[in-house]
Amino acid sequence: MLFRWSRPVMQRHAMNFEHQIDRPNPQSMTACALVAEVASGRISALDVAEATIAAIAESEPDVQAFAYFDADLLRAQAVAVDAGESLGKLAGVTVGVKDVIATFDMPTSHNTKRYEGVMTGVDAACVDTLRAAGALIVGKTVTTEFAAGQRGGKTRNPHDLTRTPGGSSSGSAAAVAAGMCAVALGTQTGGSTIRPASFNGIFGWKPTWNAISREGLKVYSLTCDTLGLYAREIGDLQLLADVFDLDPSPEPQSLEGLRIALCRTPVWEATEPSMRDAMARGATYLRGQGAQVVELELPSIFNDLHAAHTIILAREGRSAFLNEVRRCPELHDQFHDMVGNARQITPDQARWAYAHADSCRAAFDEIAQGFDAVMTPSACGEAPVGLAFTGDATMNSLWTLLQVPVVSAPGLTGPNGMPLGLSFVTRRYADRTALVIAGLAAQAILEG
């Protein structure tokens, strides 16, 4: 891990901003606002970089969201953006990158000893696309080991430092929530994007599976692994949808007349009272804006989907981590168990799981045609106290295996004052619809 400052940060911050007191503060701005201000010339990409460096100096000692950060590298990127012949769609936008996503100029360490300090020499496809649009890659954010399981998370929840920010995309979610970057990249194989979004009170988006390239991301499950994205405002995620060229889909202007399904899912018993209350309050707020909220009980075919997800992860993790275990016997028992097939998953069970997932995807495509979106819990409840356990992903795995887009909308809180998110799900490739409805829902909650 490297934290490199070329000179005392606050001193440099003061030197660069004494003449800019009347300018917007990039540290508190959204991605859309940064793009507008940089394009207008009111601020430069270097101004954004300096404000980001100051924000990290202030918040990182408490939150500990970054596995790697080099202030001079961030400045160099900003200088290059400012010197470019034209500004891209993301000029000056600061992006945190989960440390299982390859970056050519920063180590990709996967929070594991074997890859500590290892430079891939290439960018993941998603990072390459962001750089081409003028984004500033701030640093690598903390993940659990190989983005699998609970082990290795040091990051703390900015809303309460005694609580987890969720995993495995813990650093990305916390960095955005704490204002250390405008947006961030995570991944999701079970609930590693949506659950941290809920715990940190920000927007989280798990796109349709493979709608954004996974080239250059550590593989756990090819069936489930999906890039995830975080922002404090829904417009920033819509901007990223433009940059990644997501398919067009309906973008309603209001909740009035929309048909929203309230879906508790077959694993509703895993939810805590706080989330059950949040779902009820969310439905009330949406109805108050003219939406028709209808109860949806999924057919019995979906009852075994959680089990199918468990089998597929065990089967695919077995091959994904074989080389790691063979080369690093000291890896956690979790990885040895996967490689050694401790669950004794048979080929017949695997074939059933894949076939069952296919059947459920087809069934959900038909069900979802009757609704504009499905509302469902983003997590079981508030973020747990402590850092050893990053929270239960039970409420997320069904949607991950269905490969549908999911957007977690913030705004609600539980009895301990911690954030609670509500997820909005649509049919595959209707990501833009999910984004818009999640944004409208968050506004309804705010106004309610």
TrEMBL record:
This is Amidase. Coiled coil: none annotated. SUPFAM superfamilies: Amidase signature (AS) enzymes. It comes from Pseudooceanicola spongiae. Residues 149-169 are annotated as: Disordered. Pfam families: Amidase (PF01425). Signal peptide: none annotated. InterPro entries: Amidase (IPR000120), Amidase_dom (IPR023631), AS_sf (IPR036928). It comes from the Bacteria. Residues 48-434 form the Amidase domain. GO terms for molecular function: catalytic activity.
